[in-house]
Amino acid sequence: MTESPSTKTRPHGKLRRRMAGILALGVALLAVGGAYAAFAPEPQTANAQPDAALIAKGQELYNNTCITCHGSNLQGVTNRGPSLIGVGDAAVYFQVSSGRMPMARQEAQAERKNPLPEFDPAKPEGQANLEALGAYIQANGGGPQTPAVTGAALRGDDPGRGGQLFRLNCASCHNFTGVGGALSSGKYAPALAPASEEQIYTAMLSGPQNMPRFSDQQLTPQEKQDIIAYVKSVSDGGNNVGGYAAGGIGPTSEGILVFIVGMAGLIGFAMWLGAKS
Question: Where would you find this protein in the cell (predicted)?
Answer without folding.
Answer: Cell membrane
